[in-house]
Amino acid sequence: MSSQIKPVYITRFMIESYRKEMKEVFVESNVYKQRNFLKKFIEKIIIQDEKIEIIYYAPGPKSALSKISDV
């Protein structure tokens, strides 16, 4: 097994599949389905005072590229 981390390859089929699923989920008002869809991409959300930090799933070791602050 290689110790080198390989980037995830996202195909057009994957994007179209998620787009279709997202349209179906977010047209409805079912918060449970919406939350489950977002769990596929978001690892955790940290809210402290007025600052929000969203940490996304990313392969390999965690880095500054896998999170967005002050959103």
Key structural traits:
single chain; 71 residues
What would you note in describing this structure?
The protein has two helices and three strands, in the order ααβββ. The C terminus is likely disordered. 34% of the residues lie in helices and 23% in strands. The protein has two domains: 33 residues, no CATH class; 30 residues, no CATH class. The longest helix has 16 residues. With 71 residues, the protein is α+β, with helices and mostly antiparallel strands.
Compact overview of the structure:
The chain is of the alpha+beta class and about 70 residues long.
> What portion of residues is helical?
25-40%
Proportion of beta-strand residues: 15-25%
Number of strands: 3
Number of helices: 2
Shape, per Cα inertia axes: flat
Q: Major β-sheet, in short?
A: 3 strands, antiparallel
The secondary-structure class comes to alpha+beta
For the largest beta sheet, what order do the strands appear in spatially?
A: 1-2-3
When the domains are counted, the total is 2
Unreliable stretches (pLDDT < 50, length at least 5) are: 64-69
Multimerization state: single chain
What is the C-alpha radius of gyration, as a whole number of Å?
15 Å
| End-to-end distance | 37 Å
What order do the helices and strands follow? Answer: HHEEE
Average of the residue pLDDT scores = 75
Topology:
Layout: H1 12-27, H2 31-38, E1 42-48, E2 51-56, E3 67-69
Antiparallel strand pairs: 1-2, 2-3
